[in-house]
Amino acid sequence: METTVSYARLVRPAIDRVYVGTRWAARARMEAFYAERGCTLGAENSFFSGVLARPMPAEALTDGLIYTSGSMDEELARGVVVRDDEGAWHLTDLGRELTLFAQRATGEAAEELWAMLPGVLPGLGIVPRLTELVGRVLAHAQATGGPVFRAMSPPYEPEDASPALLLVTRLGSLRHHRADAHRAAWRAAGLTADEIRALPDGPHRAAIEADTDRRDEPAYAILTEAERWELLAGLAALPN
Asked: Structure pTM?
């Protein structure tokens, strides 16, 4: 029988495939909406499930952008976000309009993709059940998530949200539990962001990935073994 630790590693590619697939499917419509308002996709778009619910603390944004330049100059210049005296990032009215559209477009793209699977639509078939399972994982993970996960969860969920929108939004937040775990693991190993990106496969990286699994594992402890496999199989069944 697989342990919960190994399950955390198994389920991550399924989460990423579903979430990233819907985001790419929505990208053209998001870019068009942004362009009409003189903007391009920025950090607010990547972190929509969190920033729609609350300001993003400086520490969380720094970690969330650690593998990039980390610059927010363009978002500031275009009036998408503002920064308060404590360093937290807030959406402006324009930023909220853009980010709400990004969430809605992602949910619509998910519905279109998943309509290809017999039995998913109408009624979205397995999607409400997957949404429930991911919601339970998110709630349980509040005790173990790092700074970005805490900024991203609980996610913003509109009252009229479809099951598809809820699922992709919750997956978007859940991904940050493992991302925080990975950053904590390579920092504990004494590495920088540049060093972990350049680290080749081998015993050192394997040890960091194993530590990541251990740190990510508690999120899924709320699910029974049968529910863990149900979640993995359900995600694997969704087209992207």
From this structure: 0.93
Strand 81-83, strand 89-91: pairing? antiparallel
Q: What is the pLDDT of residues 92-125, one digit of tens each?
A: 999 999 999 999 999 999 999 988 666 554 445 7
pLDDT, mean of residues 1-28: 87
How distant is the alpha carbon of residue 39 from its chain centre?
22
Longest Cα separation, the chain: 53
Task: Provide the 8-state DSSP code for 220.
Answer: G
Cβ contact 121:114 at 8 Å: yes
Structure tokens at 147: 């700074």
For residue 177, give Cα distances in angstroms to 12, 55, 105, 129: 10, 18, 24, 21
CB burial string 60-86: b at 16+ within 10 A, e below:
bbebbbbeeeeebeebeebebbebeee
The 8-class DSSP code of residue 92 comes to -
C-alpha to C-alpha distance for 62 and 64, rounded to whole angstroms: 5
Q: What is the 3-state secondary structure (H, E, C) of 11-55?
A: HHHHHHHHHHHHHHHHHHHHHHHHHHCCCCCCHHHHCHHHHCCCC
The strand pairing partners of 81, in sequence order, are: 91
Rounded alpha-carbon distances, angstroms, from residue 44 to 53, 105, 115, 168 = 12, 14, 28, 16
Report d(CA 52, CA 142) in Å as an integer. 18
Question: Under DSSP, is residue 67 helix (H, G, I), strand (E, B) or coil?
Answer: coil
DSSP letter assigned to residue 210 = H
Provide the token pair at 55.
């300001």
Nearest to 167 by CA among 116, 213, 133, 212: 133
